[in-house]
Design goal:
Layout lengths: L1 H21 L39 H21 L1 H11 L4 H8 L3 H19 L5
Length: 133
């Protein structure tokens, strides 16, 4: 039963971070630099079909946002109790960062990084999971 819970938690964390990353940032326009209204009429990048197509995801549903908030509460607990390294490792992994990059940053093997992620998720299950029978 523990492996099924761990697998379900892995998927829940990945979906929650995906939801977080797909949400629109209402303050992003304050971070832009440079002129806001300059438009070059002869610019090739404004031509139709010049840039590659981009796919925008539909805004997350209220149920997805609720699940995301629950998972972020768990990750916040992990950060407070066990440190920012464990939190950052899970955020990078769930956000799609390559495991070999995480391993090189931590100066260990890829398997070690995945084991550390599993141990962090086990801590979350120990604190917030169902009671043992």
């Amino acid at each position: 039963m523990g492996d099924r819970l761990l697998t379900a938690l892995r998927e829940a964390v990945r979906q929650a971070i995906g939801t977080l990353n797909s949400m629109r940032d209402p303050d992003a326009h304050f971070l832009r630099q440079g002129a806001r209204f300059s438009v070059l009429t002869g610019d090739a990048s404004l031509a139709y079909g010049y840039n590659s197509a981009t796919i925008s995801r539909a805004p997350p549903s209220p149920a997805e946002i609720t699940r995301m908030e629950i998972v972020l509460d768990w990750l916040g607990w992990l950060r407070r109790k066990h440190g920012a390294d464990e939190f950052r490792r899970i955020m990078d992994w769930a956000g799609g960062q390559a495991v070999f990059k995480m391993a090189s940053r931590e100066d260990c093997s890829q398997r070690t990084v995945l084991n550390r992620i599993d141990r962090s998720l086990q801590k979350i299950l120990g604190e917030f999971g169902p009671p043992e029978i």
